[in-house]
Amino acid sequence: MTYKIIRNGNEQREIVEDPENTLGTDFNKSPYEIIEWIDDCTYRAKYDETKMELSEYQKFVNDNNGILTEMVKIEGKCFYFKATLDVNGQIQVMNGKICKE
Q: Strands of 32-39's sheet, edge to edge?
């Protein structure tokens, strides 16, 4: 799977390319998000309920204060990140890389 992120100011849209339909037919593959910058390297993302109907998962993410993303390292046109979600006091972590086209 690949993700394309389109960001305009504090608004973001993700487009998920899932050719094998791994995520299922009910997964929103082009959600809208609102970005809240905490500092130059850290932001919190929540799903934008004014632009789409939220799935149960997206409501859960918003109810748990969104996904916190920290830029860990920058190399060329890419940055490595650590994204976390606090679920009942347990931190779920996803590490990844985003590159600018």
A: 2-8, 11-17, 32-39, 42-47, 67-75, 78-87, 90-99
Percent of the chain with pLDDT over 70: 99
- CA distances to 27, 46, 57 from 100, rounded to whole Å, are 25, 22, 27
Q: H helices within the chain, ranges in order?
A: 56-63
Cα angle for residues 61, 67, 70 (degrees, 5° grid): 175
List own/partner pairs for 12-19 with CB under 8 A and 24 or more apart.
12/45
Digit-coded pLDDT (tens) for 28-39? 788 999 999 999
- Pull the structure tokens for residue 77: 């046109």
* CB < 8 Å & 24+ apart, contacts of 46-53: 48/11, 52/28
The span from the CA of 26 to the CA of 70, in Å, is 29
Instruction: Output the pTM of the full model.
Output: 0.85
Cα end-to-end span (Å), the chain: 17
